[in-house]
Amino acid sequence: MLISQKSKEIIDSCRFCWMCRHICPIGNVTGQERNTARARMLALSLVERDAEPLEGVADNVYECALCGACTKECVTGWDPVKVVKEVRSELIMKGKTPPYIMKLIENLQNTGNVYGIAEVDSELKAEIDSLPETADTLLFLGRDAIYKSPKSAIEAIRLLKKAGVSFTVLKNEPDSGYAIETLIGKTAESKGVMENCAKVLNFKTVVCYDPADAKVFLREYKEWGIDLSANVVTFTSYMAELIKNGTLKVKKSNKAYTIQDSALLSRDLDEVEPIRDIIKACGENREMLIFGKDTMLAGNLIMNEYMPDVMKEVAQSRWINARNMGAETVVTECPAEYEMMLSVKPDGIDLKTVEEVISECL
Ligand code: SF4
Ligand code: SF4
């Protein structure tokens, strides 16, 4: 394979120890060994030795959510996610990307989002149009919020307005590069999308509503050498600071909240405390089963386009975890997990975004 020497070393370093087996959100719901990092590394080692064709692992590498749970657990200290992304790059270079992924790439090229949605929700558009053209602070909404969770995007905008923050949202917000990098890894195309986005981020502060964009701005741009002059912060850390410095005055309620930690925040960006600071200011923090850096994915909207049944089971599995911990209200940090959990929400437990929790405590 054309993948890097480091990735080849990662594949061959796998001790097939199974330490990553029980923590894979996909493998846990499908029950299929092939979905675990261990089996994927084994399959790739066969491709590397010409015992299997590359296209034989194409579906398999798209069944990984890139959630990083296996990377955190891997006893070798290597990173199976890096390998998966590189194989996705190799597949596109060799014209062997599965057709259902090519469809998403075409959607991206035609509409700017993998979902192929041409129009922005009219209420969200009106909310964005109500904001000043220029400001020091930019709220970057991200593709999932704009096209799949406009209600969340509207609430986030309204909360910042209530806080008296002088901010704007770009009327034609570009793709951060998250989707393309997810689909085809670190290719020249992905870099081009990121560079294009970087050109319009000339603000003092960029508040990322979606942890996926925060991760791309703070990690991938750095790796590509794409400079951002803006101070990039996550929505959760920004809101926690507004509460801490008294800009947002919340009243503690007697409600119990259970956090669905975003893996992008907790594992990729090392951010676990701001959401807890917010929840503790608003009520009781009743932890989820497997939380913080150990969090389990609750859903991914891009994967929902081609593995909807599995994604529903992933979200359902998180609801079971929440129920087992006596959760009353689950609180999400990212639009993808909010929408996926909402799609299979059981009766008797509430689901709220972090901005909903703050808003009801004002
Ligand atoms: S990154 Fe997540 S989904 Fe992919 S193999 Fe590892 S644990 Fe499973
Ligand atoms: S924890 Fe690491 S070494 Fe062990 S099976 Fe998983 S990928 Fe291989």
Walk me through what this model shows.
This protein is of the alpha/beta class. The protein has helices at residues 5-13, 25-30, 37-48, 58-62, 69-73, 80-93, 99-111, 122-129, 143-148, 150-162, 178-184, 188-198, 211-224, 235-244, 263-268, 273-282, 301-304, 308-324, 335-343, 354-360; strands at residues 137-140, 167-168, 205-208, 231-234, 256-260, 284-285, 329-332, 350-353. Strand 7 (329-332), helix 19 (335-343) and strand 8 form a beta-alpha-beta unit. Helix 6 packs across helix 11 (178-184), helix 8 packs parallel to helix 10 (150-162) and helix 11 packs antiparallel against helix 12. It is globular and about 60 Å long. 46% of the residues are buried. The site of one iron/sulfur cluster has 15 residues, from helix 2, helix 5 and helix 6. One iron/sulfur cluster binds next to helix 3 and helix 5.
Give the CATH architecture of the largest domain. 3-Layer(aba) Sandwich
SS strand fraction: 5-15%
Mean pLDDT value:
96
Ligands and ions found: iron/sulfur cluster
Low-confidence stretches: none
Biggest sheet, in brief? 4 strands, parallel
SSE run: HHHHHHHHEHHEHHEHEHEHHEHHEHEH
Shape: globular
CATH topology of the largest domain: Rossmann fold
Quick recap:
With 362 residues, this protein is an alpha/beta fold. Helix content is 51%, strand content 8%. It has three domains: 5-97, no CATH class; 122-240, Rossmann fold; 249-360, Rossmann fold (3-Layer(aba) Sandwich), CATH 3.40.50.
